UniProtKB/TrEMBL annotation:
This is CHK domain-containing protein. It comes from the Eukaryota. Pfam families: EcKL. The lineage of its organism: Eukaryota, Metazoa, Ecdysozoa, Arthropoda, Hexapoda. Residues 138-333 form the CHK kinase-like domain. InterPro entries: CHK_kinase-like, EcKL, Kinase-like_dom_sf. Gene3D superfamilies: 3.90.1200.10.
Amino acid sequence: MSEVPKIIELAGVVDPFLNGGKLISYTSRYLTKTGENYGSIMLAITAKVQRLSGDVEELALVAKLPPITNDFFWNIFQPERTCRTEIAVYKYVAPALRQLQWEMGLDEEEIFDGFSIYYGSRVSLDPDSTRVDRNALLVQENLQASGFKPGNREKMFDLSHAKFILKEMAKYHALPIALRVKRPQVFEEDVRPYFRHFNIDSGLGEKEKKQVETDLLEQVAIATNNADRYVEGVRELYRDLQKYRDSVDEVKDNLYTTIVHYDLWINNIMLKYDDNGLPCKVKFVDFQISQYGSLAHDVVFFLFSSVESAVLDQHFDELISLYYQSFLNCLNSLKTPTESYSYVGFLKEVHKQAPIEIATALFMVKIILADHSTLPDDYKDLDLSVMSKNVGKENIIKRTSDIIRLAEKYNFFLSY
């Protein structure tokens, strides 16, 4: 790995969040390995903090920087948009949702706690600048130091994990809907403007876009023994995905529109476990490409990108029903009307959005299951060639085959 990037004026960002304390010094190291994170640089920070009492203690933090060492991913992730969106999650959305729950009378143990603690941010060293530059920064608690474990992208979630995560995901989706209904001015002024449609493909050239499609179709051809109906079916799905991303129309409010994460897979979900080894707390991370849209995007993408195939085969309907009921329970707890949320209507919404997310899951397989030997040692050398290098890998072909089979089983190749 290359030298760890230096953070200029870290104290100016974190000191206002130290309850009167101040940052004395810090050390840093890379938090993630190459291939674990693409849209940012993650640094683990050990901060020495002097409290008001004079005592000095260590605080474990994470500093998130835009992809300053990799111009390719800088262009793809477009920090001018993605940094602002993620900062808004911690600066505006999380506090607004917590305040709403408190005002609705929820006990502390009932309040959704799926966001990490925020320790400040900036878009530039210039306090008067409104433009994101290469000194942009987001600082959060180090969840690993708090007992949370990152997912393993080579090991999909089993049934107990899938159930727990879907329950918490349902709360994450229901809360912004309740905020929109209960506090429309707060929602329209402090939330909605930061989550407009985002096209991650716009940073790719035509040659790169064509290579991505070629690699995907080759992957599908190998997985299906060159079955034309599947290759052509996925070709249509992927082109529909591209049309969806290229759309300039903003999503209009409906029953299911909320703050969608749009990247809820194994690496962006951190879990804490109880004494029996079962998940008991979750934190969702990496909100860079979050958008306003249908909650069904997150549900389908999570299931097909991150849950064991056998679980999807045997428990899919159970998991969908569990999410739906948890979603209603959350809205009810916030005194938000639920009469219009029929299960049939919810299933129609899932089927409407599913084809887009099946295409996304198929595209992501090569990233999620990328062989470590195909990844460069240094993040600055990472590019889309990692996907081409992983076409034909046994585990990727198996997962591709499973996604196609299960999508067909649940009638997700065509929308309503």
